[in-house]
What does this fold into?
Amino acid sequence: MKNIKYLLVLLLLVSCQSESRAQDKPNIIFLFSDDAGYADFGFHGSEIMKTPNLDKLSNQGIRFTEGYVTDATCGPSRAGLMTGKYQQRFGYQEINVPGYMSENSKFLGDDMGLPVDQVTMADYLKNLGYTNAMYGKWHLGNADRFHPLRRGFDEFYGFRGGGRSYFPYKDFKGVHHDNKMERNFGNYEEPEGYATDVFADEAVSFIERNKDKPFFIYLAFNAVHTPMEATEEDLKKFPNLKGKRKEVAAMTLSLDRACGKVMDKLKELGLDENTIVVFSNDNGGPTDKNASLNLPLSGTKSNHLEGGFRVPYLIKWPRKFKAGTVYNYPVSTFDLLPTFYAAAGGDVADLEDVDGVNLIPFVTGENKARPHQDLFWKKDVRAVYRQNDWKLIRFADRPAELYDLSKDLTEQNDLAAEHPDRLKSMFKKLWEWELTLERPLWTLKQQFEKYDTNRMDWFRNPELVKKYMEKYD
It folds into this structure.
């Protein structure tokens, strides 16, 4: 009898220790918006957009002034995020939109996706005991082998493609299959309400059902990507705006409300102190498409000016990080994988072949150095090399340009002629990096290169951008 009691006590102790270890692991929530403008948040100075919940997140956590994504378009950007590495290294260089690709691509249609030999953020966290959910826009491949439930996630509600209506489809006539809303695997279920709100509700439900164990939520809103659709209630909140600017303001309001709903649930359940909450955006805002604003940055989505890939970037972890911190060195979304892995108790030395770094020692002040001295971007012939504060931009249709971002954030003063030796050495370093990459698995038709270049030129001068936006006042 004594032996049985001893065994029961031992089992109870082991169980308590196991539960304690589980509770020591932080929950992780990544809030990811789509096509939002750098300037379209209160925490970045907007006096037009209403983002009280994200402003609170900024005040309670760390705001990175030089946060980057790995590409200026959404598919490759998500591939870099999910793998913690430059996506060009495994051939995911171009956006994957059916119908826009060169027929000479190796893969087309549903076969354009995150290669199955790549280990994802969710895979790594699952191995550390996390339960993982993904809600919203996937855009990492339509074929079943690329599905979130086969890439480390345990639960999914969203769509596999790149953009769809925010309202439920009454029928699927003319709707590409990758834009149908899907619950878990193959169960197509249109939302009962506005998609941004519905995705938040799904995340809240998941938190309630998994509050006693460590979890990871990748909440990838399609807001504020086109089509420009908002509820009448949200549109009424911006009577002084018109056109697309009014619509993007309303869509941003709903995005902020959805983020607030998730964060409020954490507080209600007593989970907020030991939950990492990150907010970022997949690329710069496409001003011509959704009236998003990237000022003071020049450029937009799909080009290599700062407005193309410098994005909002917030992290909150009350148990570990000091509130109200502003961090001024460059970081990238590919740093999130090793950061999450380290926070979850993993040894980053076990991560295979990642380019990102664990940001924890940098933001806590343990490591005073820059997380990255070198950062690269590439799309076809166009490419960028950032070396500390110097930025080289290589174009397809003009000579390379050189900027000192510490003195010229808007990239108006090309220093290439003044620093020919630096230009040459950086050009060679960029080429050396390119030699480590794989050829693209698919590529856009060449005509779209011209569109991206034109878009860059249209929104290159901040004063012209301000004039362009006057039509929405």
The two ends are 81 Å apart (CA to CA). The first strand starts at residue 27 and ends at 33. Residues 5-22 have pLDDT under 50 and may be disordered.
